Amino acid sequence: MREEVQEFLATRQDLVLFLRNQPSWYRRLSREPFALKEFEEASKTFYGQTFPQRVDRFQNQLNMVNMMLALVTQLKN
């Protein structure tokens, strides 16, 4: 693997963990060191850090709070 790629990975521990989970990316980055942006996007998708995934998580949490409030109001009556 190229030295620039190794230096980039040394600064980002989350990407190193993703690389260990997905060894195909190790091979790809060894052959195509310019694919770092795609590698980062794949990592974000894997860890659920993309904007749509965050919105879905927030929406699920909001729905859970609404259900809890509805349950509490039902128990009061």
Record the SSE blueprint.
Layout: H1 3-11, H2 13-21, H3 23-31, H4 36-47, H5 51-76
Q: What descriptors fit this protein?
A:
mainly alpha, 77 residues, 84% helix, 5 helices, single chain
Mean pLDDT: 94
Q: How many helical stretches?
A: 5
Largest sheet, in brief, is:
none
- What low-confidence regions span 5 or more consecutive residues with pLDDT below 50? none
From the N-terminal CA to the C-terminal CA, the straight-line distance is: 66 Å
What percent of the residues sit in helical stretches (DSSP H or I)? over 70%
Strand content: under 5%
- The chain-level structural class is mainly alpha
What's the total count of β strands?
0
Overall outline: rod-shaped
- Rg from alpha-carbon coordinates: 20 Å
**SSE ordering:** HHHHH
Describe the structure.
The protein is mostly helical and 77 residues long. It is built from 5 helices and no strands. The relative contact order is 0.10.
Question: What's the gist of this structure?
Answer:
The chain has 77 residues and is mostly helical. It has five helices and no strands.
